[in-house]
Amino acid sequence: MSHDPHSPHPSSPVPPPHIPSWSVSALPHPWPPDEEPVEEPVAHARDGDPAEYEGDLPTRPLRRALPHRARGHHGDLRMLRRAYRRQRRVATLAALGYFVAFLLLSAYEPSVMTRPVTGGLSTGLLLGLVQLPVTWLAVLLYEYTARRYVDPLAARVRRHTPPDPLARAAEGEGLVGPGR
Amino acid sequence: MTEFDGSAQSWSLVAFCAVVTVTLLLCVMTGPDRDDLAEFYTGYRTMSPLRNGLAIAGDYISAATVLTIGGVIALCGYDGVVLALSMTLSLMLLMFLLAEPLRNTGRFTLGDALSRRMPGRSVRITTCAVTLIALLPMMLVQLASTGQLLAYILGFTGSTMKTGCVVGVGALMIAYAAIGGMKGTALIQLLKMVMLLGSGAVVAVLVLRAFDWDPGALFTAAAEHSGAGQAYLRPGLQFAAGEHPRLDMISTQLTIVLGAACLPHVTMRMYTAGSARQVRRSMSWAVTAVAVFAVVITVVAVGATALVGREGLAAADPRGNTAYLLGSRAAFGAHLSRPETLLFTSVTTALFLTLLASVAGMILACANSLAHDVFATRSKPPGPQRETMLARVCALVVGVPAILLATLVQDRSLQPLATASFCVGASALAPALVYALFWRRCTRAGLLCTLIGGTLAVLVLMPGTSLVSGSPTAAFPGLDFHWFPFTTTGVASIPAGFLCGWVGTMLSGRSRKDRQRRLYDRVEPRILAGTALPRARAGAPPVTGGGG
């Protein structure tokens, strides 16, 4: 397996007590440990914040292949991937498709584009300028569908993923700062 | 030669000095502490979506964008409007496709995002090199046009003064990047967007009022004064001189759509958001701001043609780069009263601030990449203090050669440089991002092939295009060695970039591909869903974001 050379050395100074020792090891792989993560802990935790269960994790890193992972997590991931893919594809194809159609019409059928519509504006100019309020609507629609369909799935998947060891390492470094 | 009268010039000078003082002060005040990497590189993720969105829009709309698009709209009408639309669409595509995965996987730089899948130095170093190759031409364009623009506004003509302006402004920009980090430059971008949109909107309203609120009359008048009659309102004026005008137009617009938003100084702002939802909301604000700006610049530039006429525009600058300024000036009528002078000063100040802010953002992106991807990944990683200092030194290392080169090229046509930048973004960075974030089987060899192949394709084809030689508005108008019959390399280099990546992956052998597929499965939860941020440590400022 390839290492990310950016992870801290095992010989770095003693990490502060609330960062579990397993995350300071040299293995940055982000998949969850083999055991099911213990139930969402203490009362003061924010909802869905998996960083809270850090104290309960095993102290040695576990390295198993994908099929042994928790089933629920895998199913959630698949649903997330599907929702995400659908949203992305629809949004991109709609936006890009409209624009490519506009370009092709402008280039190869200029007679369609230059028919005057209102006042001095031609069809092409009007279609082009109308793209701006349509942009705004598209953005709003995207945000709505993301919030409604994708975000809840993502939150579920995130609950099962341990926090980013690289980001934690950076926090650790920041703490150690001037003492180095 | 300028037609701005003396009082406008002196007001502008006063305003410029004030702007410089204020922005430097802002940078110093909001600059990061010495020993926090995250603050220098990402501004601590504490900016609200509105501010972050305006900062993204600010980075996206550089001075070259304003001036070039203004010029193309003023001289070529329909084609210019399509150009402004591609600009908006590019940012929208970034929002739909890449913003959230980038924010989830990247930490400080593009190299971080790409090497999340392929750990190792080779990808980081190549990404850094491509970042520099993509941004350096843009920086040269901005710096070199500084001298022209300041000379135009303030009314001096000596070339030593212009060079002095370039050097002075360049030094300021390096200072912004080095002192302010991400947050300082974000504030400057914010200030610039507010001024640009505010003053631009007022001018647009004035232009419309001059035509009795009838956009049809505006366009008709512009067509009459444009020297091209009805062809002004038809597609194809911009590329009429080329050999394949229709394919050229399509490929240019598509290059801009793919390339403009993948440039590193825009994508680096994705990492400053706290969660996927934050980045989405920031991007909505950014896209809205850019769309509003597209309307404003269309109205002002078309107004410039309608009120000043093509001869006036071409006399000031053959490419029409001063159309925005001339349009604003003309909207106020022949004689400026006191409030109108102030308003016009705000337009010139907005442009000056745009100039200052654009290069600062680009220098920051290059410096971050150099420091973080190349120097900080050696066998002994430096501490956060040293890495911050390293990033600041890199800002100098990148900025000083840029200033020197800019003074050398400032008298030539700069169009090919700006185009080269977009082409590299579209041919190397866009395919690399798409492959790395979404393609399971992509191997390290494939990713490197995309980056290197796309860049090489652009570098080889660009000198042969008709922007570099062979036409009167080219960079070398006296020579003619162009063999590539288009104005952008996109039609060949974008497919080349995608193809190189595919070929590189296919040639890597089955075991590598399978291994990559497994690695992708491990990284995918992070790409799609991100991770919750670690809870704030005691005594540290609260970290916002987290659950969507």
Give a short overview.
The complex is a heterodimer of chains A (180) and B (548). By secondary structure, chain A is mainly alpha-helical.
User: What number is the mean pLDDT of chain A?
Assistant: 62
CATH class of chain B: Mainly Alpha
Widest beta sheet: strand line-up of chain A = 1-2
What is the CATH fold-level name of chain B? Answer: Hydantoin permease
From the N-terminal CA to the C-terminal CA of chain B, the straight-line distance is: 55 Å
Low confidence ranges of chain A: 1-59, 168-180
User: What is the H/E order of chain A?
Assistant: HHEEHH
| Oligomeric composition of the shown chains | heterodimer
Question: In total, how many beta strands of chain A?
Answer: 2
Shape of chain B: globular
Main sheet attributes: strand count, strand direction, barrel closure of chain A: 2 strands, antiparallel
Order of helices and strands of chain B: HHHHHHHHHHHHHHHHHHH
What would you report as the Rg of chain B, rounded to the nearest angstrom?
23 Å
Residue fraction in strands of chain A = under 5%
The whole-angstrom Rg of chain A is 25 Å
Name the CATH architecture of chain B. Answer: Orthogonal Bundle
Q: How large is the count of helical segments of chain B?
A: 19
User: Helical residue percent of chain A?
Assistant: 40-55%
Mean pLDDT of chain B: 84
Q: Could you list the spans of chain B in which at least 5 consecutive residues all have pLDDT below 50?
A: 534-548
Biased composition (Pro residues) (chain A): 8-19
Region (Disordered) (chain A): 1-71
Transmembrane segments (chain A): 90-108, 120-142
InterPro entries (chain A): DUF485
